[in-house]
Request: fold
Amino acid sequence: MGHGKEVQRQKLIGMMYLVLMAMLALNTSKEVLNGFVIVEEAVIKTTKNFAQKNEDVYKEFGEQAALNPTKAGEINELALEIKEKTSELVEYIQDHKLAMVRISEGDDTDAIHGREIHSMLIGGKDNTGVPAEYMIGPENNKVGKELKEKIIDYKEYLLKLIDEKDEGIRNTIESSLETEPHKTHDGVHSWESTHFEHLPLAGLLA
Reply:
């Protein structure tokens, strides 16, 4: 009888251990997901700071163009053209981020304020189904493919403006906007698959 009680006690301890490990795994997962949110918030803050600095540069271009249209007018027009094309791509990406959050959370979600996303308020941060279905689809025919094409077009547009001799700038543009397949330990994966498949919503937004 005593031996039987000992076996039951060991089973109970084993079950408690499994429950504890599961809870730790959930907590770790939650911490990782919240980590994505923190990264995204930092990126947004940095982007806003750079945007403000860029506005100062655009303002200076405009002032110089007003003073000397012949010399600075063409540069100002080119700067505004780059700004417009960049804004189009950024807004396109934001449109689809907003769409995915609405699909996951519903149209009345508190996570969306205007065109801003407050990722910490997203309940389905760990949702991997919505990003994969929305961005890739069953035949890689969804938004991810279209986004890759837009990034390629934007990259080629920028590279045409940069002299071949300016290798540093060209390399930065190439690496920042790369869309090539990625090679991993289990094979070669498309750019879309690498960035949008098996990725939680919180990670994709970041």
Notes: The CA atoms of residues 51 and 57 lie 10 Å apart. The helical segments are 2-67, 69-105, 129-135, 143-161, 167-176, 191-196, 201-205.
